[in-house]
Design a protein that fits this description.
By secondary structure, the chain is mostly helical. The protein is built from seven helices and no strands.
């Protein structure tokens, strides 16, 4: 799998294989361990991970669905951002939120901000606005 630009199918296969390896008690790579941690935090996705046909399913907001693969991928991306504190200040925001609402909910608060910034970048056909991202994150701190 291409690490920095995987296809939709590769991302989905990664999560499904990670889940299958876990269930079969097969050793996991470090990245798979991180992914598994988030899969375990989302029991509502376990049946999806058990279904190989999920690799080709479209999850649409119009139908009120959350894309579990996107959601889990965002958890991993946020974990990496926090680990390297990029954008600068995200670790402090996370620590504040975690102390108030717990790790998982802190991730979801950050995910809302990240989703907004990604949507805006796609809409503008440009790069992510890190300043906007940090400003949105700081607003979350102020509400908790």
């Amino acid at each position: 799998m291409a690490i920095f630009n995987p296809t939709r199918e590769q991302v989905r296969e990664f999560f499904i294989q990670t889940w299958q390896k876990y269930k079969q008690n097969v050793a996991l790579t470090d990245m798979e361990k991180i992914a598994l941690g988030w899969i375990l935090e989302h029991p509502e996705y376990h049946a999806i991970m058990d279904n190989p046909e999920a690799k080709s399913k479209d999850f649409t907001v119009a139908e009120g669905q959350t894309n579990p693969f996107l959601h889990l991928s965002m958890h991993i991306a946020i974990e990496e951002q926090i680990a390297i504190n990029n954008p600068h200040g995200i670790r402090e925001v996370f620590e504040h939120l975690r102390a108030k609402i717990g790790e998982h909910e802190a991730h979801h608060e950050i995910m809302e901000c990240l989703g907004q910034v990604i949507w805006q970048a796609q809409r503008n056909q440009g790069p992510l606005d890190q300043q906007m991202y940090i400003e949105l994150l700081k607003q979350r701190v102020n509400t908790h």
